[in-house]
Amino acid sequence: MYHSPQTDLLESVSMSEWSRTNLRRLFFRIHLPDDGRPCEFDAAAAVDAWRQAGVNAAIFLAKCPAGYAYYKTAHGCGHPGLRGCDPLGEILEAAAKDNIKVTACYAGAWDALLADRHPEWQTVVADWESALGRQPTLCLSGPYREIVFERIRELLAAYPVDGFWSDALLWGQPFCYCPACEDRFSDRFGQELPRTPEHPLWHRAVRWRYDQAERLVAELRALCRALRPGAAFTVHFSALQGERKTDAVQRPLGVSRFLDWLMAPGDSREDVSPSMAAQFVGSIAEAHRFGRECLPPLLGDVRISRFAGESDFTLRPQPQIAFEAFAAVSYGAAVTLEDEAYPDGSLEPAVYQALSNIYGEIERKEPWLVGSSPVRYAGVLHSQATRDYLHADGGSRFEKAVYGAYRALADNHLPVGFLFDEGLTLEQLAPYAVLYVPNAACLSGETCEVIAEYVKQGGGLAATGMTSLRDETGRKRPDFALSGLFGAHYEGLLREPFVYWSLSGLSYPLFYQGQCARVTTEAETLGHIWESAGTGGRGSGPYRETPMPVAVRNQAGGGKVVYVVGSPESRYAESGLPEYRWLIDRIIHLAASAPRPFWVEAPSVVELSARRLPDGPTVYHFLSAVRSRPVRFGNQWTPEVIENVLPVFDIRLHIASEPGRRHRAYLLPDMDPLRVSHEDTEVVVDMPEVRLWSSVLVEKED
What we know:
This protein is α/β, with parallel strands linked by helices. It contains 19 helices and 37 strands. Helix 3 (43-53) crosses helix 4, helix 14 packs across helix 18 (568-575) and helix 18 (568-575) packs antiparallel against helix 19. It starts with a helix and ends with a strand.
């Protein structure tokens, strides 16, 4: 049943176009009580509400985590309340009349009914207890695997779905230690699964876990292709869900090569923003397209929620849902809103009234959204090797660094994309004027060679912290692998937990708490470390400047390099203080091989996405909302809330241009002309105001 990765990637498939064009999506669930009450769900009324709200693609939860099927089944367990009803069939029939594409969602690893009957099938964590989480989770390495495939085969053979999504497919922390997983690993390596990062087979086990997950996804894709050749296929994509160890079972480029679209969570309840989620999945799609013209382009999808909490049906503020939806599509992704019927099967009308306004605005701008491609300038390296090592070590420093790097660049209004150490190539780096490597401690020799060649050919590099100090398995090197580029050599860690950084351009020393490298250098020093006068393990004010460098600038071949001894992006993620963002903006400016393609006179609260249309013009999407910062209570954080929409006035967009070239600018979707002025090497567009989401089309005059 399994196709090798290469064979499966090169398979020519005529796939439904909707998975790349239908941007207004809904993930809809029904969880009926199992106390014998009959089903009152009205599929036709639900689809009518979707249509009126502007939904053009829906995901329907066909089999829920409790184990009940919401379709007719001979192999699974139908919900006792259905009494002959067929919600999936009725949804498909009603949706076909309105040309709404329907994807069936199957909860894979979660099945409370089977877990109760077969507790021996459950996933097991290292302390030999069952890994329950929200639901009892079953391991797909054992007998449960065949049951899942049998039920999915039945579903796909009987129902003409437009897509199939296997949700909750993989679970682990990061390993499952059930007998089936132990046997599989023992057959491959002749030893038990390791339980600590110190075990010599730990890193091999991590790679083995990825391989097992990707084999499972490949088998599911082959099954979907055999039964529904035109259906779009995906799984729950969790490679960007922050600090959760359970997500170590996925690597971005590994599992995604088998998918027709990528859905990443991106609302304020998650660890990332909608724009970061859209950029992340969009960058994965780009990475797959290099050298693989036979593959259809992937579309990213950002999932947001209407729920205030996991079990809280309170409707989140409409401005917040709108901002997250607009951010997703502005950065090149589709948007999927989560909704669920009430226990009696009814819908909340307020959800669809709000969605009608939001999706109506997206629909009006779709001609300038579908098929656009991003303007690239600064690339953030996501190092899966570093993530693996730090997860194994129980830390979360790398996720914090990646999030802070993205957030700082986006808040500085720079065009940002992600790059990945999984097979990094010069071709992937070529569109970027600067590569930002945020505290990526673990880099393979091959990845370092590609980065070195990129810089040699004129690319810019900004790197921070412990970047390249370890290899891809976490083994420490005696010096940075990239020390020749940095112009700096590792001498150890600073013992002081609290120091200050003094750099040119900063009017006062900047506090830094965290790991900090002690380096020697013959390159240009951009600033020095100040000791703190603190005692007893506590910090105090800057006491004395030392000769130890904070940052160095070096010329390597045709490119420029800036290295910083700590992780300012992590500090920005923690504190949000603008000084760290200004510092990052400065090192990007010093390292970049080219000036930025545009800049904007606007506060950091305004986000800016630039997308090129296939016929040449560029669309600039401005997003603005007033957000309440999260508040911490012990170990708990309140979620970010967007309640108010206040306009931002008098924004000026400066675009680099050839001398003498004339441009026009229009406010979308009504094509209202905007004032444009021309200077020697730039075009200036005046925006009267931005209110939540404003889009500007800029084109050259003939």
